[in-house]
Amino acid sequence: MDPVRNPFAPGAGQRPPELAGREKELTAFEVVLERVARGRPERSLVLTGLRGVGKTVLLGELRSMAVRRGWGAGKVEARPDAALRRPLSAALHRAVRDLAVRHRAPERVEHVLGVLKAFALKSNPDGAKLRERWQPGIDVPAAVGRADSGDIEIDLVELFTDVAELAKDVGTGVAVLIDEMQDIGADDISALCAACHELAQSGAPLVVVGAGLPHLPAVLSASKSYSERLFRYVRIDRLDRPDADRAVLAPVDREEAGITPEALDALYERSGGYPYFIQAFGKAAWDAAPTDPITAEDVLVAAPEAEGELAVGFFGSRYERATPAEREYLRAMAELTHGRDEGAGTSDVAVFLGRKPSSLSPARDSLIKKGLVYSAERGRIAFTVPHFGRYLLGMEE
Q: Which PANTHER family does the record match to this protein (predicted)?
């Protein structure tokens, strides 16, 4: 079949041709937008799930929904080795620009930009030389005495308040979308929770939408005990069979092509319903099919190609980040779970490796920080990447 017309799009954060199975989340966010715009209280939102289930794609879709409603919206991708102040400044600068085109008082916009600049400049270390100081690219003087204390919790509350007031002036709101939220540092995550709490109490039209790995709720709870009530948690999982089929059938139908029921069975079996894998195997099957429709044989022929690409770009890139000791821990998990997407007991890992549990704690903690595993519950550990155990067992064959 013509590869130019191939509709499937495997890629990190790339929107699939058919966003199937996420109607509930989209509808819920539409309600959030409407309630906040009307001054009704509403909790911020946190999306959690394994890698490859489409959290980043969904964040992008939620941002688009907010922009279509006239909201200011900015997106941040958190990194474990970077403080939040600088990327959050860039995201809010974009949100303020979204609002500025609708605001009739340029001086109000300039005031908020000045506060934002003051907040951003505090990311520079004290005593830094002028040529070494980062400049946020905001063409107004920095405000004085607002969001510039250097205390991230105080500054973030003041900044969020001013940005939210600007949105309120034009009858809309602000959405701050944060991907990989579990990677935010302890002080910054505490400040973010405190700011969300303060704004929720005042009814300010600003919501935070975070996305992260399954242990993100535990990270937030450890930061602020009230975070369990502060956010509405939504678990993003793999697609069920009808939605997985729709993710394949809809784009194929739009290209006026076909796929047999047996091929759909084979695709679901190979992908496990995970959106990223559906795109990877769908793309390979389309390219492998000599004629229309795509058959189960085409899926079988294409499987090694798809698996090879996943081994390099999806699994291998993560495995390479692990040290030899960490790889030993990962392989033990794979053996204990027989390659299935389920958790293993930390004590079982120690017994399997013939080690004391305490001696394995550094490797386990490092793997959690690298986002390769997470603590599913006390005493258990699981892969953040679906099918990772299967991949590790396949390496040994």
A: ATPASE DOMAIN-CONTAINING PROTEIN, DNA-BINDING PROTEIN-RELATED
Q: Whole-angstrom Cα distance, residue 393 to residue 397?
A: 7
Q: Residue 75 belongs to what H/E stretch?
A: strand 72-77
Q: Which comes out higher in pLDDT, residue 202 or 158?
A: 158
3-state secondary structure of 356: coil
Which run of H or E residues covers position 196? helix 186-202
> Looking at residues 205-224, what average pLDDT do you find?
93
Q: What is the mean pLDDT of the chain?
A: 92
Q: How far, CA to CA in Å, does 204 sit from each of 154, 196, 282? A: 16, 10, 44
Residue 174 pLDDT greater than 90, yes or no = yes
Structure tokens at 161: 């308040």
Q: How confident is the model at residue 396 (pLDDT cuts 50, 70, 90)?
A: low
Q: How many Cβ atoms are within 10 Å of 186's Cβ, its own excluded?
A: 10
Domains of the chain by start residue, with CATH: 3-12+239-318 (1.10.8.60), 23-235 (3.40.50.300), 321-395 (1.10.10.10)
Distance of CA 391 to the CA centre of its chain: 23
**Element holding 87 (H helix, E strand):** helix 85-100
